[in-house]
UniProtKB/TrEMBL annotation:
PROSITE patterns: PROKAR_LIPOPROTEIN (PS51257). Residues 1-29 form the signal peptide. InterPro entries: SsuA/THI5. It comes from Actinomadura keratinilytica. Gene3D superfamilies: Periplasmic binding protein-like II. It comes from the Bacteria. It holds the Pfam family NMT1. The keyword Transmembrane does not apply. Residues 143-287 form the SsuA/THI5-like domain. Keywords: Signal. This is ABC transporter substrate-binding protein. The keyword Signal applies.
Amino acid sequence: MRKSITGKTAARRAAAAAAAGSVALSAAAGCTVAGNAASDGDGAVRVVVGYQSKTINTVTAGTLLRSLGAFERRLNELGKAEGRRYTVVWQDYDTGAPITAQMLAGKIDIGSMGDYPLLINGSRAQAQGDDARTEMVSVTGYNMRGSLNGVVVAANSSARTLADLRGGKVSASVGSAGHGTFVQAAEKYGLDPDKDVTVENQQPSVGASALQAGSVAGLAQFVAWPGLLVNRGQARLLYDGGDLDVPTFHGVVVRKTFAGERPKVLQAFLQAQIDATRYLHANPVKAAESVASATGLPVETVYLYNGAGGVAVFDPTIKPKLRDALAHDVPFLKSIGVLQQPLDLKPFINDSHLRQVYGARYDRDVASTANPAAIKGTDRVCDRQVEDPAKAGEVWVAGEAAPRPVADPVCLLRNVRAVQDEGKRIRAVYIPDAATATRWFADKDVWVEDPSADKGERFKPFATQEGAQKYVSSHSGAKVVSYDEAVKRA
Protein backbone atom coordinates (compact mmCIF):
# COMPACT_ATOMS: atom_id res chain seq x y z
CA MET A 1 0.00 0.00 0.00
CA ARG A 2 1.01 3.63 -0.17
CA LYS A 3 3.96 4.33 2.06
CA SER A 4 3.78 7.17 4.56
CA ILE A 5 6.42 9.89 4.17
CA THR A 6 7.50 11.32 7.51
CA GLY A 7 9.64 14.36 6.63
CA LYS A 8 7.75 17.60 7.24
CA THR A 9 10.18 20.25 6.15
CA ALA A 10 9.59 23.94 5.70
CA ALA A 11 9.67 23.65 1.91
CA ARG A 12 6.97 21.02 1.86
CA ARG A 13 4.88 22.94 4.36
CA ALA A 14 5.19 26.05 2.23
CA ALA A 15 3.94 24.18 -0.83
CA ALA A 16 1.04 22.75 1.16
CA ALA A 17 0.19 26.20 2.49
CA ALA A 18 0.16 27.53 -1.05
CA ALA A 19 -2.29 24.82 -2.06
CA ALA A 20 -4.51 25.55 0.95
CA GLY A 21 -4.35 29.24 0.23
CA SER A 22 -5.58 28.73 -3.31
CA VAL A 23 -8.62 26.87 -1.97
CA ALA A 24 -9.38 29.61 0.53
CA LEU A 25 -9.01 32.27 -2.15
CA SER A 26 -11.40 30.40 -4.43
CA ALA A 27 -13.96 30.15 -1.64
CA ALA A 28 -13.69 33.86 -0.91
CA ALA A 29 -13.87 34.84 -4.56
CA GLY A 30 -16.95 32.77 -5.34
CA CYS A 31 -18.00 31.25 -8.69
CA THR A 32 -18.91 32.70 -12.00
CA VAL A 33 -22.35 31.13 -11.48
CA ALA A 34 -23.33 31.32 -7.84
CA GLY A 35 -25.98 29.48 -5.88
CA ASN A 36 -26.76 25.95 -4.75
CA ALA A 37 -29.93 23.88 -5.00
CA ALA A 38 -32.15 26.90 -4.37
CA SER A 39 -34.98 28.06 -6.58
CA ASP A 40 -34.35 30.31 -9.56
CA GLY A 41 -36.50 33.32 -10.13
CA ASP A 42 -38.86 31.28 -12.30
CA GLY A 43 -39.37 28.71 -9.54
CA ALA A 44 -37.10 26.01 -10.92
CA VAL A 45 -34.85 24.18 -8.46
CA ARG A 46 -31.21 24.74 -9.44
CA VAL A 47 -28.65 21.94 -8.99
CA VAL A 48 -24.99 22.93 -9.35
CA VAL A 49 -22.47 20.30 -10.49
CA GLY A 50 -18.71 20.88 -10.40
CA TYR A 51 -16.60 18.77 -12.73
CA GLN A 52 -13.20 18.63 -14.49
CA SER A 53 -13.71 18.31 -18.22
CA LYS A 54 -10.08 17.49 -19.04
CA THR A 55 -9.69 14.97 -16.23
CA ILE A 56 -11.19 12.38 -18.52
CA ASN A 57 -11.70 9.52 -16.10
CA THR A 58 -14.40 11.64 -14.44
CA VAL A 59 -16.43 11.89 -17.66
CA THR A 60 -19.28 9.64 -16.49
CA ALA A 61 -20.00 12.25 -13.81
CA GLY A 62 -18.96 15.23 -15.91
CA THR A 63 -18.15 15.80 -19.56
CA LEU A 64 -19.84 12.75 -21.09
CA LEU A 65 -22.74 12.89 -18.65
CA ARG A 66 -23.31 16.52 -19.57
CA SER A 67 -23.12 15.92 -23.33
CA LEU A 68 -25.57 13.01 -23.14
CA GLY A 69 -28.08 15.08 -21.16
CA ALA A 70 -28.71 12.03 -18.98
CA PHE A 71 -28.97 13.96 -15.71
CA GLU A 72 -31.35 16.50 -17.19
CA ARG A 73 -33.58 13.68 -18.51
CA ARG A 74 -33.65 11.99 -15.12
CA LEU A 75 -34.49 15.28 -13.43
CA ASN A 76 -37.22 15.99 -15.95
CA GLU A 77 -38.82 12.65 -15.06
CA LEU A 78 -38.49 13.45 -11.36
CA GLY A 79 -39.89 16.93 -11.87
CA LYS A 80 -42.97 15.62 -13.67
CA ALA A 81 -43.64 13.21 -10.81
CA GLU A 82 -43.20 15.98 -8.22
CA GLY A 83 -44.88 18.78 -10.11
CA ARG A 84 -41.79 21.01 -10.22
CA ARG A 85 -38.92 21.97 -12.54
CA TYR A 86 -35.20 21.40 -12.15
CA THR A 87 -32.29 23.12 -13.89
CA VAL A 88 -28.65 22.00 -13.88
CA VAL A 89 -25.70 24.41 -13.74
CA TRP A 90 -22.40 22.83 -14.83
CA GLN A 91 -19.14 24.41 -13.61
CA ASP A 92 -15.83 23.28 -15.12
CA TYR A 93 -12.48 23.39 -13.25
CA ASP A 94 -8.92 22.20 -13.86
CA THR A 95 -8.50 20.47 -10.48
CA GLY A 96 -10.53 19.36 -7.47
CA ALA A 97 -9.40 22.15 -5.11
CA PRO A 98 -11.75 24.89 -6.36
CA ILE A 99 -14.65 22.42 -6.43
CA THR A 100 -14.02 21.73 -2.75
CA ALA A 101 -13.86 25.46 -2.03
CA GLN A 102 -17.23 26.05 -3.67
CA MET A 103 -18.80 23.07 -1.91
CA LEU A 104 -17.65 24.39 1.45
CA ALA A 105 -19.21 27.75 0.52
CA GLY A 106 -22.47 25.96 -0.30
CA LYS A 107 -22.23 26.92 -3.96
CA ILE A 108 -21.71 23.48 -5.53
CA ASP A 109 -23.95 20.54 -4.65
CA ILE A 110 -22.27 17.61 -6.40
CA GLY A 111 -18.65 17.36 -7.57
CA SER A 112 -16.14 14.89 -8.98
CA MET A 113 -12.41 14.74 -8.21
CA GLY A 114 -9.45 12.43 -7.60
CA ASP A 115 -8.73 10.29 -4.56
CA TYR A 116 -6.40 12.75 -2.82
CA PRO A 117 -8.67 15.79 -3.39
CA LEU A 118 -11.60 13.67 -2.18
CA LEU A 119 -9.85 13.14 1.14
CA ILE A 120 -8.99 16.82 1.43
CA ASN A 121 -12.62 17.64 0.62
CA GLY A 122 -13.92 15.34 3.36
CA SER A 123 -11.38 16.54 5.90
CA ARG A 124 -12.08 20.24 5.44
CA ALA A 125 -15.83 19.69 5.36
CA GLN A 126 -15.79 17.69 8.60
CA ALA A 127 -13.68 20.40 10.25
CA GLN A 128 -16.38 22.98 9.53
CA GLY A 129 -19.09 21.01 11.33
CA ASP A 130 -22.12 18.89 10.51
CA ASP A 131 -23.76 21.44 8.21
CA ALA A 132 -20.73 21.46 5.89
CA ARG A 133 -20.04 17.71 5.79
CA THR A 134 -19.63 15.94 2.47
CA GLU A 135 -19.91 12.30 1.39
CA MET A 136 -18.21 10.28 -1.30
CA VAL A 137 -21.06 8.43 -3.03
CA SER A 138 -19.61 6.73 -6.12
CA VAL A 139 -16.52 6.10 -8.27
CA THR A 140 -16.05 7.24 -11.86
CA GLY A 141 -12.84 5.70 -13.29
CA TYR A 142 -10.05 3.80 -11.56
CA ASN A 143 -6.82 1.92 -12.17
CA MET A 144 -5.89 -0.67 -9.58
CA ARG A 145 -2.14 -0.21 -10.15
CA GLY A 146 -2.04 3.59 -10.23
CA SER A 147 -1.34 4.12 -13.94
CA LEU A 148 -3.68 7.10 -14.19
CA ASN A 149 -0.77 9.19 -12.86
CA GLY A 150 2.69 9.62 -14.35
CA VAL A 151 5.82 11.71 -14.62
CA VAL A 152 6.85 12.93 -18.06
CA VAL A 153 9.94 14.75 -19.27
CA ALA A 154 10.70 16.61 -22.49
CA ALA A 155 10.98 14.31 -25.49
CA ASN A 156 14.70 15.08 -25.82
CA SER A 157 15.46 14.84 -22.09
CA SER A 158 18.48 12.76 -21.06
CA ALA A 159 16.69 11.53 -17.91
CA ARG A 160 16.14 7.78 -17.81
CA THR A 161 14.81 7.35 -14.25
CA LEU A 162 13.41 9.61 -11.55
CA ALA A 163 16.86 9.67 -9.96
CA ASP A 164 18.04 11.72 -12.94
CA LEU A 165 15.77 14.60 -11.84
CA ARG A 166 17.97 15.28 -8.82
CA GLY A 167 18.71 19.00 -8.54
CA GLY A 168 15.96 19.91 -10.99
CA LYS A 169 12.41 21.30 -10.83
CA VAL A 170 9.26 19.23 -11.19
CA SER A 171 5.84 20.74 -11.83
CA ALA A 172 2.92 19.24 -9.89
CA SER A 173 -0.42 20.29 -8.43
CA VAL A 174 0.35 20.01 -4.72
CA GLY A 175 -2.10 17.71 -2.97
CA SER A 176 -3.16 15.98 -6.20
CA ALA A 177 -2.71 12.29 -6.95
CA GLY A 178 -0.03 13.19 -9.48
CA HIS A 179 1.93 15.01 -6.79
CA GLY A 180 1.49 12.11 -4.37
CA THR A 181 2.72 9.63 -6.96
CA PHE A 182 5.86 11.67 -7.51
CA VAL A 183 6.66 12.10 -3.81
CA GLN A 184 6.27 8.39 -3.07
CA ALA A 185 8.14 7.27 -6.16
CA ALA A 186 10.97 9.78 -5.63
CA GLU A 187 11.76 8.34 -2.22
CA LYS A 188 12.04 4.87 -3.74
CA TYR A 189 14.82 6.29 -5.93
CA GLY A 190 16.66 7.79 -2.98
CA LEU A 191 15.44 11.34 -3.58
CA ASP A 192 14.35 13.60 -0.76
CA PRO A 193 11.34 15.42 -2.30
CA ASP A 194 12.14 18.45 -0.13
CA LYS A 195 15.87 18.75 -0.66
CA ASP A 196 16.85 16.99 -3.88
CA VAL A 197 14.04 18.27 -6.11
CA THR A 198 12.11 21.54 -6.22
CA VAL A 199 8.37 20.98 -6.63
CA GLU A 200 6.66 23.84 -8.43
CA ASN A 201 2.98 24.02 -7.40
CA GLN A 202 1.26 24.63 -10.75
CA GLN A 203 -1.99 23.91 -12.53
CA PRO A 204 -1.61 21.12 -15.14
CA SER A 205 -1.77 23.44 -18.14
CA VAL A 206 0.79 25.81 -16.60
CA GLY A 207 3.09 22.90 -15.84
CA ALA A 208 2.76 21.58 -19.38
CA SER A 209 3.83 24.98 -20.74
CA ALA A 210 6.70 25.11 -18.26
CA LEU A 211 7.92 21.71 -19.45
CA GLN A 212 7.88 22.88 -23.05
CA ALA A 213 9.72 26.08 -22.11
CA GLY A 214 12.39 24.10 -20.26
CA SER A 215 11.76 25.84 -16.93
CA VAL A 216 10.99 22.50 -15.25
CA ALA A 217 12.67 19.14 -15.82
CA GLY A 218 9.56 17.05 -15.29
CA LEU A 219 5.79 17.16 -14.97
CA ALA A 220 3.98 14.94 -12.45
CA GLN A 221 0.27 14.89 -13.24
CA PHE A 222 -2.91 12.88 -13.49
CA VAL A 223 -4.90 11.69 -16.50
CA ALA A 224 -4.97 12.88 -19.28
CA TRP A 225 -1.90 15.12 -19.18
CA PRO A 226 0.86 12.48 -19.47
CA GLY A 227 -0.84 10.81 -22.44
CA LEU A 228 -1.71 14.12 -24.08
CA LEU A 229 1.86 15.43 -24.09
CA VAL A 230 3.33 12.11 -25.19
CA ASN A 231 0.77 11.76 -27.99
CA ARG A 232 1.69 15.25 -29.22
CA GLY A 233 5.37 14.31 -29.29
CA GLN A 234 6.10 16.98 -26.67
CA ALA A 235 7.08 14.61 -23.85
CA ARG A 236 8.22 11.12 -22.96
CA LEU A 237 6.92 8.97 -20.11
CA LEU A 238 9.66 8.75 -17.49
CA TYR A 239 7.71 7.08 -14.71
CA ASP A 240 4.46 5.10 -14.84
CA GLY A 241 2.41 5.50 -11.68
CA GLY A 242 1.50 1.84 -12.06
CA ASP A 243 4.98 0.96 -10.80
CA LEU A 244 3.74 1.88 -7.30
CA ASP A 245 1.14 -0.88 -7.72
CA VAL A 246 -1.51 0.91 -5.62
CA PRO A 247 -5.01 1.99 -6.72
CA THR A 248 -5.83 5.47 -7.94
CA PHE A 249 -9.30 6.67 -8.85
CA HIS A 250 -11.74 9.54 -9.14
CA GLY A 251 -15.13 9.73 -7.51
CA VAL A 252 -18.28 11.72 -6.82
CA VAL A 253 -18.78 13.76 -3.66
CA VAL A 254 -21.95 15.48 -2.47
CA ARG A 255 -22.84 17.94 0.26
CA LYS A 256 -24.51 15.87 2.99
CA THR A 257 -27.11 18.57 3.63
CA PHE A 258 -28.04 18.53 -0.04
CA ALA A 259 -28.28 14.71 -0.05
CA GLY A 260 -30.58 14.89 2.96
CA GLU A 261 -32.79 17.59 1.51
CA ARG A 262 -32.84 16.31 -2.08
CA PRO A 263 -32.22 12.52 -1.91
CA LYS A 264 -34.18 11.87 -5.11
CA VAL A 265 -32.09 14.44 -6.98
CA LEU A 266 -28.90 12.70 -5.87
CA GLN A 267 -30.38 9.36 -6.89
CA ALA A 268 -31.24 10.85 -10.28
CA PHE A 269 -27.61 11.95 -10.65
CA LEU A 270 -26.32 8.48 -9.76
CA GLN A 271 -28.80 6.86 -12.14
CA ALA A 272 -27.58 9.22 -14.86
CA GLN A 273 -23.97 8.32 -14.03
CA ILE A 274 -24.86 4.66 -14.49
CA ASP A 275 -26.49 5.58 -17.82
CA ALA A 276 -23.31 7.35 -18.94
CA THR A 277 -21.12 4.45 -17.80
CA ARG A 278 -23.15 1.93 -19.79
CA TYR A 279 -23.06 4.21 -22.81
CA LEU A 280 -19.26 4.45 -22.58
CA HIS A 281 -18.95 0.65 -22.38
CA ALA A 282 -21.29 0.10 -25.33
CA ASN A 283 -19.95 2.95 -27.48
CA PRO A 284 -16.29 3.55 -26.56
CA VAL A 285 -15.38 5.37 -29.78
CA LYS A 286 -18.47 7.60 -29.80
CA ALA A 287 -17.92 8.38 -26.13
CA ALA A 288 -14.29 9.32 -26.78
CA GLU A 289 -15.32 11.48 -29.73
CA SER A 290 -17.92 13.24 -27.58
CA VAL A 291 -15.40 13.99 -24.83
CA ALA A 292 -12.81 15.11 -27.38
CA SER A 293 -15.29 17.47 -28.98
CA ALA A 294 -16.24 19.01 -25.64
CA THR A 295 -12.70 19.38 -24.30
CA GLY A 296 -10.52 20.00 -27.35
CA LEU A 297 -8.39 16.97 -26.43
CA PRO A 298 -7.34 14.68 -29.29
CA VAL A 299 -9.76 11.77 -29.54
CA GLU A 300 -6.79 9.39 -29.73
CA THR A 301 -5.64 10.54 -26.28
CA VAL A 302 -9.12 10.27 -24.79
CA TYR A 303 -9.46 6.76 -26.22
CA LEU A 304 -6.12 5.68 -24.69
CA TYR A 305 -7.68 6.10 -21.26
CA ASN A 306 -11.43 5.70 -21.87
CA GLY A 307 -11.58 3.25 -24.78
CA ALA A 308 -11.89 -0.51 -24.87
CA GLY A 309 -9.19 -1.96 -22.62
CA GLY A 310 -8.40 1.59 -21.54
CA VAL A 311 -6.12 2.69 -18.72
CA ALA A 312 -9.22 3.77 -16.77
CA VAL A 313 -11.85 1.22 -15.77
CA PHE A 314 -15.27 2.83 -15.43
CA ASP A 315 -17.41 1.35 -12.67
CA PRO A 316 -19.40 3.44 -10.16
CA THR A 317 -19.28 0.86 -7.35
CA ILE A 318 -17.05 1.63 -4.36
CA LYS A 319 -14.78 -1.41 -4.16
CA PRO A 320 -13.05 -2.65 -0.99
CA LYS A 321 -9.57 -2.08 -2.49
CA LEU A 322 -10.46 1.55 -3.19
CA ARG A 323 -11.74 2.01 0.37
CA ASP A 324 -8.49 0.52 1.65
CA ALA A 325 -6.46 2.83 -0.57
CA LEU A 326 -8.19 5.88 0.91
CA ALA A 327 -7.47 4.64 4.44
CA HIS A 328 -3.77 4.30 3.64
CA ASP A 329 -3.69 7.65 1.81
CA VAL A 330 -4.68 9.59 4.92
CA PRO A 331 -1.31 9.23 6.76
CA PHE A 332 0.55 10.13 3.58
CA LEU A 333 -1.43 13.32 3.01
CA LYS A 334 -0.92 14.25 6.66
CA SER A 335 2.82 13.73 6.26
CA ILE A 336 3.10 16.17 3.36
CA GLY A 337 1.02 18.79 5.16
CA VAL A 338 -2.04 18.96 2.91
CA LEU A 339 -4.40 17.13 5.26
CA GLN A 340 -4.24 19.25 8.37
CA GLN A 341 -7.61 18.32 9.91
CA PRO A 342 -8.65 14.84 11.11
CA LEU A 343 -10.81 12.76 8.78
CA ASP A 344 -13.25 10.04 9.80
CA LEU A 345 -13.58 7.86 6.71
CA LYS A 346 -16.49 5.77 7.97
CA PRO A 347 -19.18 8.47 7.56
CA PHE A 348 -17.41 10.03 4.57
CA ILE A 349 -17.63 6.95 2.30
CA ASN A 350 -21.33 6.28 1.77
CA ASP A 351 -22.53 4.00 -1.02
CA SER A 352 -26.09 3.67 0.34
CA HIS A 353 -27.46 6.14 -2.23
CA LEU A 354 -25.81 4.21 -5.08
CA ARG A 355 -27.07 0.88 -3.77
CA GLN A 356 -30.65 2.15 -3.92
CA VAL A 357 -30.45 2.90 -7.63
CA TYR A 358 -27.99 0.21 -8.73
CA GLY A 359 -30.09 -2.82 -7.95
CA ALA A 360 -29.42 -6.43 -6.99
CA ARG A 361 -26.15 -6.66 -8.95
CA TYR A 362 -24.33 -4.20 -6.73
CA ASP A 363 -22.59 -6.69 -4.44
CA ARG A 364 -21.55 -8.85 -7.38
CA ASP A 365 -20.16 -5.89 -9.33
CA VAL A 366 -18.43 -4.34 -6.32
CA ALA A 367 -16.44 -7.57 -5.94
CA SER A 368 -15.22 -7.55 -9.56
CA THR A 369 -12.24 -5.63 -10.92
CA ALA A 370 -12.50 -6.90 -14.50
CA ASN A 371 -12.74 -4.17 -17.13
CA PRO A 372 -16.34 -4.23 -18.47
CA ALA A 373 -14.97 -2.71 -21.69
CA ALA A 374 -12.38 -5.35 -22.59
CA ILE A 375 -11.03 -5.56 -26.15
CA LYS A 376 -12.89 -8.25 -28.08
CA GLY A 377 -13.04 -9.59 -31.61
CA THR A 378 -10.84 -11.35 -34.12
CA ASP A 379 -7.30 -10.35 -35.03
CA ARG A 380 -7.62 -10.33 -38.80
CA VAL A 381 -3.89 -10.66 -39.50
CA CYS A 382 -3.02 -13.30 -36.89
CA ASP A 383 -6.42 -14.93 -37.49
CA ARG A 384 -7.35 -15.64 -33.88
CA GLN A 385 -9.64 -14.38 -31.17
CA VAL A 386 -8.46 -11.62 -28.89
CA GLU A 387 -8.56 -13.06 -25.38
CA ASP A 388 -5.78 -11.94 -23.02
CA PRO A 389 -6.41 -8.35 -21.77
CA ALA A 390 -2.79 -8.11 -20.58
CA LYS A 391 -1.60 -8.50 -24.20
CA ALA A 392 -4.47 -7.29 -26.38
CA GLY A 393 -4.10 -4.04 -28.28
CA GLU A 394 -5.67 -2.03 -31.08
CA VAL A 395 -4.70 -0.47 -34.39
CA TRP A 396 -6.81 2.52 -35.36
CA VAL A 397 -6.76 2.99 -39.12
CA ALA A 398 -7.73 6.37 -40.57
CA GLY A 399 -11.17 6.28 -42.13
CA GLU A 400 -12.34 3.29 -40.10
CA ALA A 401 -15.08 3.74 -37.53
CA ALA A 402 -13.36 1.75 -34.79
CA PRO A 403 -9.87 0.42 -34.02
CA ARG A 404 -8.98 -3.09 -35.13
CA PRO A 405 -8.41 -5.55 -32.26
CA VAL A 406 -5.02 -7.29 -32.10
CA ALA A 407 -4.15 -10.31 -29.99
CA ASP A 408 -0.68 -9.40 -28.71
CA PRO A 409 2.34 -7.13 -29.33
CA VAL A 410 3.80 -9.15 -32.21
CA CYS A 411 0.39 -9.34 -33.86
CA LEU A 412 0.10 -5.57 -33.45
CA LEU A 413 3.35 -5.08 -35.34
CA ARG A 414 2.16 -7.43 -38.07
CA ASN A 415 -1.15 -5.56 -38.30
CA VAL A 416 0.69 -2.24 -38.60
CA ARG A 417 2.83 -3.64 -41.41
CA ALA A 418 -0.29 -4.91 -43.20
CA VAL A 419 -1.94 -1.48 -42.97
CA GLN A 420 1.21 0.16 -44.31
CA ASP A 421 1.28 -2.29 -47.21
CA GLU A 422 -2.31 -1.29 -47.97
CA GLY A 423 -1.15 2.32 -48.21
CA LYS A 424 -3.43 3.44 -45.40
CA ARG A 425 -2.68 5.90 -42.61
CA ILE A 426 -2.74 4.88 -38.96
CA ARG A 427 -4.34 7.23 -36.42
CA ALA A 428 -3.15 5.49 -33.26
CA VAL A 429 -1.82 2.19 -31.96
CA TYR A 430 -2.34 0.91 -28.40
CA ILE A 431 -0.66 -1.98 -26.57
CA PRO A 432 -0.09 -2.95 -22.90
CA ASP A 433 3.40 -2.71 -21.38
CA ALA A 434 5.01 -6.18 -21.39
CA ALA A 435 5.82 -6.00 -17.67
CA THR A 436 3.10 -3.83 -16.10
CA ALA A 437 0.24 -4.19 -18.63
CA THR A 438 -0.15 -0.39 -18.69
CA ARG A 439 -1.82 0.48 -22.00
CA TRP A 440 0.22 3.02 -23.95
CA PHE A 441 0.81 4.32 -27.46
CA ALA A 442 2.68 1.51 -29.24
CA ASP A 443 4.59 3.93 -31.47
CA LYS A 444 5.79 5.82 -28.38
CA ASP A 445 6.83 2.65 -26.51
CA VAL A 446 10.39 1.42 -26.18
CA TRP A 447 10.56 -1.91 -28.04
CA VAL A 448 12.86 -4.75 -27.12
CA GLU A 449 13.79 -7.71 -29.30
CA ASP A 450 14.49 -10.94 -27.41
CA PRO A 451 15.92 -13.64 -29.72
CA SER A 452 15.54 -16.26 -26.99
CA ALA A 453 11.77 -15.78 -26.73
CA ASP A 454 9.21 -17.73 -28.73
CA LYS A 455 8.53 -16.35 -32.19
CA GLY A 456 5.17 -14.95 -31.09
CA GLU A 457 6.78 -13.08 -28.20
CA ARG A 458 10.03 -11.95 -29.79
CA PHE A 459 9.19 -8.23 -29.64
CA LYS A 460 8.10 -6.63 -26.37
CA PRO A 461 6.82 -3.08 -25.70
CA PHE A 462 7.64 -1.00 -22.62
CA ALA A 463 6.08 2.35 -21.72
CA THR A 464 9.35 3.68 -20.24
CA GLN A 465 13.03 3.41 -21.08
CA GLU A 466 13.69 2.20 -17.57
CA GLY A 467 11.29 -0.71 -18.01
CA ALA A 468 12.93 -1.71 -21.27
CA GLN A 469 16.40 -1.51 -19.76
CA LYS A 470 15.39 -3.73 -16.84
CA TYR A 471 14.27 -6.40 -19.28
CA VAL A 472 17.41 -6.13 -21.40
CA SER A 473 19.63 -6.35 -18.33
CA SER A 474 18.03 -9.60 -17.22
CA HIS A 475 17.74 -11.31 -20.64
CA SER A 476 20.95 -12.16 -22.45
CA GLY A 477 20.89 -11.18 -26.10
CA ALA A 478 17.88 -8.88 -25.75
CA LYS A 479 18.28 -5.39 -27.21
CA VAL A 480 16.31 -2.20 -27.75
CA VAL A 481 15.09 -1.67 -31.32
CA SER A 482 13.14 1.17 -32.87
CA TYR A 483 9.42 0.87 -33.40
CA ASP A 484 9.86 1.07 -37.17
CA GLU A 485 12.45 -1.71 -37.10
CA ALA A 486 10.16 -3.89 -35.00
CA VAL A 487 7.34 -3.34 -37.52
CA LYS A 488 9.59 -4.35 -40.41
CA ARG A 489 10.90 -7.50 -38.78
CA ALA A 490 7.88 -8.84 -36.90
